[in-house]
Predict the 3D structure of the following.
Amino acid sequence: MFIEPTRRREPPHLRVGWIELICGSMFSGKTEELIRRLNRARIAKLNVGIFKPSLDTRYHDQNIVSHNSSVITSIPVPDAASILPLAHACDVVGIDEAQFFDSAVVDVCNQLANDGKRVIIAGLDMDFSGKPFGCMPQLMAVAEFVTKVHAICVVCGDIAHYSYRLVPSQERVLLGETDSYEARCRRCFHLGPDAPHREWVQE
Ligand SMILES: Nc1ncnc2c1ncn2[C@@H]1O[C@H](COP(=O)(O)OP(=O)(O)O)[C@@H](O)[C@H]1O
Ligand SMILES: Cc1cn([C@H]2C[C@H](O)[C@@H](COP(=O)(O)O)O2)c(=O)[nH]c1=O
Ligand SMILES: [Zn+2]
């Protein structure tokens, strides 16, 4: 488990910020981990701002919802630059679905951290074809802390780090859940549609 660096309450001109990146496949717990860290920052009575790309309206316009139904309210923004003015008064800035943001998201995170804010940003590191997604590689490079979380392969039960697409679309952006994606390990990802899913085992 990630142990948060302590944030002392220095005067604003002495504050040092940083970037924490949470990455992994779908169903790996990125959103749960983001919500956990943001809730703890709120318990510490820090001013927390939470943002997501307005493109992602899967469950709710404003809420960020994990696959396990943890919820936190966020501000949907059309692009990364829109975060800066909205985060002005924040001590901690949370950002979900980083892979959908434009390339300015890297500068935005750097500016926020340079301004003394703790930035916690979560996103898919690979798309459905196993290629690095959007600005995630750049974010990994500039973040002080990178946490890679893993799902469970629904085919064989091993650790999964791929998001396998179950529908034929080749579009990079295709919003969806278990209807269109499943978590798979390296071996089962490459087995494709013929992967033999294990049966449920009754105790
Ligand atoms: N294949 C899977 N592996 C692990 N967790 C899964 C899987 N399928 C569904 N889940 C659920 O998804 C939750 C994680 O959801 P979430 O934080 O939204 O993940 P992410 O943001 O990485 O997609 C887990 O706690 C678990 O309840
Ligand atoms: C792999 C992959 C995923 N997506 C979409 C599917 C979901 O709507 C989000 C990821 O959500 P999560 O919080 O990580 O579960 O991204 C996509 O558009 N393209 C892809 O290749
Ligand atoms: Zn597997």
User: Anything to note?
Assistant: Helices lie at 30-43, 83-86, 104-114, 136-142, 186-191. The longest strand covers residues 18-24. The first helix runs from residue 30 to 43.
